[in-house]
């Protein structure tokens, strides 16, 4: 995979805000994602990790064009070098861009799951797609009879596997997987990551949003660390080892050290609320190395084979 090649997904300075109403119906804008930049190349898995409420799922919804009606997005989205505007999202969604949603409620409760996995297509293609569905169901340990069930007849784990099956049915160039493994047994979750790796080897780019950091460290090529609605660091997966000596941002190091295998070494403070963000570096209030310069603009920059949003990282 050539890092210098055109990315299959390019997210550049994306901000997402919501129209909110306070006392007296006073309208205000609440920005929850701030100047977020990220790239995914063909053939690689980029895992997005971070605390709950850091904006990970909003990024997925922005890419798919399924943000709520009161959301506003600024910045640039590109798919294979072309603008990913509303028209392009409708054209590619469910075809060249597949989505594995976090909630199993995305399944239509009134439609048998087989029809949902096969999708809409020409009648002459139906036989081929049914055979592909059988192969995919076998890969994810779903009986063929599952196709005749309605979503309410599925267990949580089965519903999760049906969602994954639907996403890998086509020839997607990009898969956006938002928490694809909750509810799956450990062995099946690891097998799902292996399936993602197979798809990446076939040239698919995968954006994996997950709280399962252990799985991400085993499956991903690069890790993007989210904090308070922005990306603080993107680094090769091999940098997330030991006590984080190879990492660049103080929060990335703290995040790694707080994992169970590193003894839950927590730091003081908490992620700032979207409505009361500090100026400059979003992590500055919790950083022991902060200085006055951290209160100014801090942009993403390349450093030691990764990217970091910190003016003092070396």
Question: In brief, what are we looking at here?
Answer:
25% of the residues lie in helices and 25% in strands. Helix 6 (186-201) packs parallel to helix 7 (213-219).
What does this structure look like?
- The protein has 314 residues and is of the alpha/beta class.
- It is built from eight helices and twelve strands.
- The strands form two sheets. It has an eight-stranded mixed β-sheet, with helices on both faces. It has a four-stranded antiparallel β-sheet with strand order 2-1-4-5, with helices on one face.
- β9 and β10 (230-236) form a beta hairpin.
- α6 (186-201) packs parallel to α7 (213-219).
- The longest helix is centred in the middle third of the chain and has 16 residues, at 186-201.
- The two termini are 26 Å apart.
Order of helices and strands: EEEHEEHEHHHEHEHEEHEE
Major sheet size, sense and barrel closure: 8 strands, mixed
Q: Helical element count?
A: 8
Structural class: alpha/beta
The outline comes out as globular
* Average of per-residue pLDDT values: 90
Kindly state the number of beta strands.
Answer: 12
Q: How much helix, percentage-wise, in residues?
A: 25-40%
Any idea what the radius of gyration is? 20 Å
Low-confidence runs (pLDDT<50, min 5 residues)?
none
Strand order of the largest sheet: 6-7-8-3-9-10-12-11
Distance between the termini: 26 Å
Percent strand: 15-25%
